[in-house]
Amino acid sequence: MDKKNIVVSGAAGRMGKTICKMIIKEDNYSLAAAIDVLNINKDIFNLLGINSSRQVLIKKNLKNVIENVTVDLVIDFTNPEVVMKNIETVLAKKVKMIVGTTGFDQSDLKKVKKMSEKYEVPIMIAPNFALGAVLMMEFSKKAAKFFEQSEIIELHHDKKIDAPSGTAVKTAEMISESRSKNNKERDQDFLEKLKGARGADYEGVHVHSVRLQGLVAHQEVIFGGEGQTLKIRHDSINRESFMPGIKLAIDKIDNLEGLIYGLEKIMDI
Fold first, then answer.
1. For residue 44, how many C-alpha atoms fall within 13 Å in the half-sphere facing its CB?
2. How far is CA 108 from CA 156, 196, 258, in A?
3. What is the Cα–Cα distance from 213 to 230, expressed in whole angstroms?
């Protein structure tokens, strides 16, 4: 069986390093190239502390790498400021793509969908690749049918740029979609002694973002009903928690079409 040649964009970041390490260890994958704006021309194997006869130097220009390296798939974990440009670069070269970078809004997703259809290349975008986080979102969607009120608290490390997280936004969307039109939370005026105390508001679902050292990725959804509350929580203790979901996406990407948004689309839930 031929190995799948994979390029990792954002390879020098914490998630990128973890993904590179996973790819190197898997028999069916091959790390074709590593892209980043940091540690340029440094060997990713040395950066990961892995002894290898191979040498993969970190490069800056994604387009040049794709044009000069045999590549089946690009995995992007960069940042919201560059990800849309990266997507267009990759899809235009007819290369499949998996994106874990967050910060997409509905307008961005529509653009990506058009690009995928134009170039006839599949792309998966997932706010969260932890299987447990996907289940947390699915359980929240089910719970929303029975509770009129809910709030989301998402907690991440202090280096995460966007807020709320993509997972929190998608959870709020799923909760809203799950409710009937007659069961939407009613707007209520609050006296905010500090502006923003009630968090962001997505169709009546309040979302609160926490950014602190020591955190990885965590989310709690709290539902309130008459005389009761329900809490659904997921915690990623380390970045290895995302690897099973990323491997699932890698193994299924060849059989997908268009834009696939959310890991639940390829999970048998």
1. 29
2. 23, 25, 15
3. 28
Determine contact, residues 263/128, Cβ cutoff 8 Å.
yes
* Catalytically active residues, by annotation: 156, 160
Architecture of domain 4-125+239-266: 3-Layer(aba) Sandwich (3.40)
d(CA 30, CA 136): 32
Asked if 125 and 111 touch (Cβ cutoff 8 Å), the reply is no
| pLDDT for the residue 180 | 67
**CATH node for 131-236:** 3.30.360.10
Mean pLDDT over 3-26 rounds to 96
Please say whether the beta carbons of 112 and 87 come within 8 A: yes
Q: What is the pLDDT of residue 88?
A: 97
Q: Could you give the 3-state DSSP secondary structure of residue 266?
A: helix
The Cβ-side half-sphere exposure at 29, using a 13 Å CA radius, reads 22
> What is the residue extent of each domain of the chain?
4-125+239-266, 131-236
In tens, the pLDDT along 130-184 reads 999 999 999 999 999 999 999 999 999 998 988 999 899 999 999 999 986 545 5
What pLDDT is recorded for position 181?
57
Query: Which residues fall within 8 angstroms of residue 62, CB to CB, at 6 or more apart?
Result: 7, 9, 35, 74, 86, 89, 90
pLDDT in tens, 59-94: 999 999 999 999 999 999 999 899 999 999 999 999
Q: Dihedral, CA atoms, 8, 14, 15, 21, nearest 10 degrees?
A: 60
In angstroms, the Cα distances linking 55 to 22, 25, 33, 64, 138 are 16, 15, 10, 18, 42
